[in-house]
């Protein structure tokens, strides 16, 4: 049953594609060349979430479209003024794409959760169709931005127009670099403290393990060789002197015994 259903679905899709192709060719013939049928470029398509589900968005010569499932999406490239790439930063798996239209009364279109590995493909496509784009690390409040622009468009352009997106991106980069510099400075301070601790430890270790100092102190407190010899000689004299004295005391007693 599953195999038969799969084959039926494939047959129905092929038939639908043929009918759609025939319909587009008839439109082009009936318009006598005033209407050109646009074909999506699937090889440069990218995944994204324009509404609630993740779908395949495919560029064409004139548009960016999603026509496979409802709700459909068709964004004419000629209607786009700028594009803004958001949440573009190291460590994130996805980024967002916002299209701002030339008609400022039209709300921007958000395409969220585009895989980060397709970032360069999206940039190349935008560049190939001459759409100016900026990028930043955060999501912007576009409803408030467009409200401010619509209040006084002339003043908006007098103050630099969309260049504030570039300045915003540069400020984010400078903040990141300053944070990195402060972290680097802290690491240097920690290294200096550890180095001073190590040097003090080395000094203590060298004081404790210096055999020369102990030898010098022992040499100063210990008696020299001459003193030792003198002490030994005196002890020897005292010893022999006592024995001689005992021997001289015994000689008279022996003489007395002989006389008796």
From TrEMBL:
Histone chaperone RTT106/FACT complex subunit SPT16-like middle domain location: 46-136
Name of one Pfam family that matches: Rttp106-like_middle
Bias kind Basic and acidic residues: ranges: 230-239
GO cellular component assignments: FACT complex
Biased composition annotated in UniProt, kind: Low complexity: 177-188
Source organism superkingdom: Eukaryota
Protein name: FACT complex subunit
Organism: Acaulospora morrowiae
